[in-house]
Amino acid sequence: MVQILTAAVLVTSGIAAGVLFTHAVGVWPAMQAMTPERYVAAHKLLGRAYDPMMPIIVGSSAVLDIILAILSEPGLARTLFIASAVCLAGVGAVSQTRNVPINRRVKSLDPQAIPADWEDPRGLWGKWNLVRTTFAVLALIGNAAAAVSAF
């Protein structure tokens, strides 16, 4: 059972880290180069798929880490599973308190009627995305190290 859960946590934390990393190095730079109108339209399109899926994936991965920490013998693997769960909680906390509020503001805009006094949130959003990407990559590294040390 522990081996199956370990495989599952590697998949879920790998997906989370991969999506956030890809967004940080590919999607986000492209969105920064767009006009405000194109950025708002693209942001709305991208959010449709990411918004419901990423919290499920990150949350599932954190729960798996907690279960694995409980099932693991005291030692390095348990410590790494706990550290990975904490990092995934960091992903969720940054997402919900920083990125999601910005997403809501951007989604409320009409791409064809950007207010003249609009404060472009891309710099701030990008900064917080890098923070949560770092947490996600650290969680994946921790889970991979825990998997190797557990077997």
Label this structure with key terms.
151 residues, mainly alpha, 4 helices
Helix-strand blueprint:
Layout: H1 2-32, H2 36-71, H3 76-107, H4 122-150
Helix pairs in contact: 1-2, 1-4, 2-3, 3-4
Transmembrane segments: 6-31, 52-71, 130-150
Keywords: Membrane, Transmembrane, Transmembrane helix
Pfam families: Anthrone_oxy (PF08592)
Describe this structure in words.
The chain has 151 residues and is an all-alpha fold. It has one domain (2-150). It is 85% helix and 0% strand. The protein has four helices and no strands. The chain has helices at residues 2-32, 36-71, 76-107, 122-150. The model has no long low-confidence stretch (mean pLDDT 95). Keywords: Membrane, Transmembrane, Transmembrane helix. It comes from Nonomuraea rubra. InterPro entries: Anthrone_oxy. Pfam families: Anthrone_oxy. This is Putative membrane protein.
Count of individual helical segments: 4
Largest sheet: none
Average pLDDT taken over every residue = 95
DSSP summary, beta strand count: 0
* Low-confidence runs of at least 5 consecutive residues: none
Kindly state the percentage of residues in helix. over 70%
The share of residues in extended strands comes to under 5%
Element string (H = helix, E = strand):
HHHH
Straight-line N-to-C gap: 13 Å
SS-derived structural category: mainly alpha
From the spread of the alpha carbons, the general shape counts as elongated
